[in-house]
């Protein structure tokens, strides 16, 4: 059976390792820093709607502890801004065994990041790249603890070969994820699924960091999504629709009282932990693609610039984890309108 080497012990990586541990899917979890040291010493406190477990995970913090084989698949779970470094670190490690792979660059890899950039980044080093669109309501703000509120399954996953195609490898990954408890399936057009997820990410994630009247926040969210849809239309990408799923998912959702709070998605959590955020690869991805395809994206540009400036100046410092806010929505709206009014070069 394939062994999954999960690189990164954040919300996605650690929860995936926990599900593999509970279901018997072969894996190893690799990470750095305080989180992986805590996991090695004390295990992970894995909080789910049906109970809390402390799991001893198969974790390591030194790549020298790992002997890569022909049966391995690399799962890169760092945020997109850290993915290139991870690919460089792992691509040229030796692979042992009698199969065709001589270095890790010849092994298959899975990229579950939000946005559309991760697969293209990985493809520079790895010839078999499988994108994944992951919907797992997870929270990682406390070292040694991961909260996953999806219920009854921990999350929904769509897997596909990048840039397109559906093969036996994608089907095997989806089957292993189903064995681990996820609602997972393979699809031949992974970019459409990741585009659909990106619309939701640009609409909601960064806005968690702003406050103001609910109506104004909703209006801004609508503009963010509208710009993303216009960009995808210019690219000839029709985002996937929920009814195209092969699994029935109407029963699935976020369990009440599970510890997943509205307004505290992954970008908010990154700021709360004091780590780098992925806005440049969410809203910033729409800005980049808009520039490449001649589509104006002033609302996404304004939120990318606003968060960039505020984080650079330490605007989030001193905020409590329960009340992090970087700015006011009316100021952001004014910036977007100013950008929209500027003549395009």
What can you tell me about this protein's structure?
- With 345 residues, the protein is an alpha/beta fold.
- It has 2 domains: 3-189, 3-Layer(aba) Sandwich (Rossmann fold); 194-239 and 250-341, Orthogonal Bundle (N-(1-d-carboxylethyl)-l-norvaline Dehydrogenase, domain 2).
- It is 39% helix and 20% strand.
- The chain has 11 helices and 18 strands.
- It has an 8-stranded mixed sheet with strand order 5-2-1-7-9-10-14-15, with helices on both faces. Strands 4-3-12-11 form a 4-stranded mixed sheet. Strands 6-8 form a two-stranded parallel sheet.
- The protein is globular.
What's the tally of helices? 11
User: What is the share of helical residues?
Assistant: 25-40%
Radius of gyration: 20 Å
Basic shape = globular
Strand content: 15-25%
Order of helices and strands: EHEHEEEEEHEEHEEEEEHEHEHEHHHEH
- Classified by CATH, the class of the largest domain is Alpha Beta
Largest β sheet strand count, sense and barrel closure: 8 strands, mixed
Total domain count = 2
Strand neighbour order, sheet with most strands: 5-2-1-7-9-10-14-15
CATH-level-4 superfamily name of the largest domain:
NAD(P)-binding Rossmann-like Domain
Secondary-structure arrangement, i.e. CATH architecture of the largest domain = 3-Layer(aba) Sandwich
Number of strands: 18
> How would you classify the helix and strand content by structural class?
alpha/beta
Overall pLDDT, averaged?
91
Assembly level = single chain
């Amino acid at each position: 059976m394939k062994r999954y080497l999960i690189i990164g012990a954040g919300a996605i990586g650690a929860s995936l390792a926990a599900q593999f541990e509970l279901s018997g899917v072969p894996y190893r979890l690799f990470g750095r820093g305080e989180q992986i040291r805590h996991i090695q010493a004390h295990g992970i406190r894995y909080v789910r709607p049906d109970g809390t477990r402390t799991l001893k995970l198969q974790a390591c913090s030194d790549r020298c502890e790992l002997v890569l084989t022909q049966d391995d698949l690399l799962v890169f779970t760092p945020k997109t801004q850290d993915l290139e470094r991870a690919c460089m670190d792992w691509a040229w490690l030796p692979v042992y065994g009698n199969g065709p792979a001589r270095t890790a660059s010849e092994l298959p890899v899975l990229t579950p990041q939000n946005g559309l950039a991760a697969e293209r980044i990985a493809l520079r080093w790895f010839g078999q790249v499988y994108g994944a669109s992951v919907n797992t309501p997870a929270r990682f703000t406390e070292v040694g603890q991961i909260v996953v509120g999806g219920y009854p399954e921990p999350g929904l996953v769509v897997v596909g070969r990048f840039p397109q195609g559906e093969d036996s490898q994608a089907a095997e990954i989806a089957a292993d994820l189903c064995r681990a408890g996820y609602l997972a399936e393979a699809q031949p057009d992974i970019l459409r699924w990741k585009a659909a997820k990106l619309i939701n990410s640009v609409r909601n994630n960064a806005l968690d960091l702003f406050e103001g009247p609910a109506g104004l926040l909703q209006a801004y969210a609508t503009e963010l999504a509208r710009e993303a849809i216009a960009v995808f239309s210019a690219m000839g990408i029709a985002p996937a629709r929920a009814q195209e799923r092969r699994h029935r998912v109407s029963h699935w959702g976020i369990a009440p009282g599970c510890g997943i709070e509205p307004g505290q998605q992954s970008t908010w959590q990154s700021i709360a932990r004091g780590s780098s955020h992925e806005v440049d690869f969410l809203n910033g991805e729409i800005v980049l693609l808009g520039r490449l395809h001649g589509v104006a994206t002033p609302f996404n540009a304004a939120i990318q610039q606003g968060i960039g400036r505020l984080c650079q100046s330490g605007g989030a410092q001193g905020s409590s984890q329960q009340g992090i806010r970087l700015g006011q929505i009316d100021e952001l709206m004014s910036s977007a309108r100013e950008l929209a009014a500027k003549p395009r070069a």
